[in-house]
Amino acid sequence: MSKEKNNNLIDTITSLAKRRGFVYPGSEIYGGLANSWDYGPLGVELKNNLRDWWWKRFVQSRRDMVGLDAAILMNPKVWEASGHVSSFSDAMVDCKKCKTRHRADHLIENALPDQKVEGKSADELSEIIETHKIACPKCGAKGEFTKARKFNLLFQTSIGSVEGDKSVVYLRGEVAQSMFVNFKNVLDTTRIRLPFGIASVGKVFRNEITPGNFTFRTLEFDLMEFEYFIEKNDWQKWFEYWLAQQQDWLKEIGFNKDNLRVREHEKEELSHYSNRTADIEYKTPIGWKELFGLAYRTDFDLKNHSKHSGVDLEYTDPESGNKFTPHVIEPTFGLTRLMLMVMLEFYYEEGEGNDKRVVLKLHPKLAPYKVAVFPLLKNKPELVKKAQEIFDNLSSEFTTVWDDRGNVGKRYYAQDEIGTPWCVTVDFDSLEDGTVTVRDRDTAKQERIKIDELSSYFSDKLK
Ligand code: GAP
User: Is the beta carbon of 25 within 6 A of some atom in ligand 1?
Assistant: First the structure.
């Protein structure tokens, strides 16, 4: 069966992820917690591989980029200055019958796909819901919604153990602000000069009402983003440059370009900080959805932080001596969302009947395990010993997994399903001639390779 025929791909991926240890429902033994997920042994490898590739490509391989890893809890004044306390909100409605809460724009989009919702006020959204008697997706009741009200997406918590001493702080809703508030620190402590970027990866939190769809929209998620500081007049050039770079990386990962598109935000849709935004969207089984974003944040953030903190966040050009507030282009990459889309993109079902196999055709750099090592028979100590030696050698260089259960055919299929690019089988010939069978995940072809050459064989492939 080809992947196009699998209409329930998100359900299939959710089940594969749970069954094979990529992603588990959060707090499962207590009945779970809506829209929270835990990354299991394979999921954490895949997610880290995406993160590491991103860091290498966009930070370490460039002269104009530096990294930062800042605290999640920040002074609440940060979020006032950034506009998130006043503007980071969604309009919600409650069903009076079944008491469930829904995002007003999502309700309308699902019921009336041609209706534009971007930039509409809570009152305007309510009017559309009432006029079209949109039904509650949970209980089906029509015309039973409350008026839409704005709910802030920032999660609140408090610092201080003594009642009364407590003060409200927010879990960060984006990583970006940590890079703006450290702009001066980075300038003062490095030799970097405009144009340059500060990059960061970490957890962010949003109190969103979400309709499921596995890890697509969650309460907490990993975000990789950078703020690229430029001179105002150059913003269009850098916007186009980073848009191309974001798409290039997706192509390097192996995404089919027909499953990607760029969507420009309309004026009414722009976030409070942005003058231009484009989304890179991916064609999911539930329609085109945002994968990455790119925003021209102007000098909005640095100017506001300068005003609220009283600290000068201007930049002085070392050659001309000109002093100005840099403008910012922000490429943002949802890491957990990218992982979901990678699983959707590279999931294949091939063959029929007994030959049917599920293959995750992940780029080898992303595969949780690069190599699986099998002794042909687990009750033959000489085979196990040789396989163990090979495992020990390879595992110091590549993430390697051991499997000695069932027949070799089943072991191949089990590795295909989790995306392991190569399987090494140690058989009786290996003891005689020092070679092993290496089987390729995508072609299922097998070849004999000298044990001594395995390490360079896989290194070359990974290049
Ligand atoms: N600093 C800009 C910013 O945070 P955003 O479009 O709100 O922009 C960035 O989010 C990226 O984070 C999105 O492109 C998407 O990949 C991912 N994302 C946003 N909300 C998410 C959620 N609730 N769950 C998972 N990923 C999310």
Answer: no
